[in-house]
Design goal:
This protein is mainly beta. It has 5 helices and 26 strands. Residues 44-187 form the Peptidase metallopeptidase domain.
Amino acid sequence: MLAVQENPANGHLITEAAPGEEEEQGESHKAEDTNDIGRLAVETRKRWRNGKTLRVKFLNGSDRVRRKVRQYANIWTQYANINFQFVDAGEAEIRINFDLNFPDGGGFWSNFGTDSLGVAANRQTMNFGGFNDQTSEETFSSIVLHEFGHALGCHHEHQSPNAHIQWNEPFVIAEMWRTQNPRWVEAKTRFNIFNWYSEKDVKATQLDGRSIMAYHVPAEWTLNGFTMDSNTQLSETDKLFIARMYPGRALAIESFNTLELRPWNVNQQKASKQFYFSKTYKSPPAIAVGLTCIDASKDLNIRVRAFADNVVKSSAMFHLDTWADSRLYSASCMWFRKPTDDKAFQIGQFNTTQDHSWESPQAKTTHQVKFKHRYSKAPKVVVWLNELNLAKGKNWRVKAHASDVTATGFKLHVDSWSDTVLFTAGAAWIAYPEDRKGVASGTFQTQDVRKATEPRTLTSGWERFPAGMFKRNPKVVMGFNSIDADCGKNLRVKLGASAVSPRRMKWHINGWSDSILYSAGASYIVFNS
């Protein structure tokens, strides 16, 4: 397993039940292979064995470019059941060169999937001929994701059997000869841009202009003015499709980790990511955000905030920030969204500063929530922490929960205890009808399986869903609702689930290194994906 700073998947991982896990209980549940799962083109005959660990070796390159390749390549492993192991010596399925004048040619390219196995062991299978220590983050992200997509067997999106782009071929051929270094001859341009892949060899659906595997297509390249922008991150359909091609990885794709943007040891107070929804709403949706991982220095106050803004019909900007002098090594969050006109689901946000100033901290805060739309009876309520501001030098203890739930509202509690100094905290809440079909929720905590007086790094347990509610693996969204950790060590805690099936999931609340986690708890909502 790669270190958490190299693989954002370690911060917010939700995985399906692996093949055979449910058979042990006398039943099997296989994810449906529908036609609307994504738009990425994958050559089915060149895929790696599912679950394989691919060894990756650098043949040259500076420390910075190597680090950036590791950082962005590992984003694929959040969604595909594939791991990358970076090795310094010995055999490797993927061998990376950074030389502009390597015998096989410079530029940016990669072998397709298992084609790498046919390349001599002393030759590269992937090339980044233009990278150097001054290369921008956007360029690293765009090109590394694209070329590692090829390494997993993904073809160019614009060459999908379903693309049907009307190319201005003479213009593009001349342009690629003029602009590329080394120059592209006509045959190479046809191979990389015009030629469609065979439908019998490629699994694909409709063209996805946001795919990382698409080239930038200027309007003058086409006869009808069709255009596509260049992309710097995986599209949502890229993620969905590669998860189906290499199943068993993340079911919950709506998450954000600061490690997607920067290494843990780069001090940066603000991190943000624009997320494009899989559908366009009639109006901006309501969003609840919850924290799922915190890695922060013990030497300064713990300050972390997860939130969304710039919410429009098709996307939102998600943030993971710290402030003042705090040192936030990494953090992650997940979110739940619903149309604002869906009266069954009501979403809200509370911060203790709505009750009292951060300069007058208090151990217990209670806020009366009044629903905008009355329910016929008391609904289910899910509560997630999404902001913490805790003093150093005192153990970090905080809990958010709902009580006295009625058809018209509930009491939201944000509490600390003992000598903890809680300057501020924020919490999101979700309410929905108790009898809503295809939706369930609940809570779990480390105390379900061990005592708080017996801290350990790894804690897990099973959570069962209502019998018969789900026919296929549901989607799970979760966030912390409580944390109790020792202030003598860095605060390191992360949340996840594995073996998600229609009947149950295995939850995980983990620390790492020398952190001391007395207890932690989480709330979740699970629904048909």
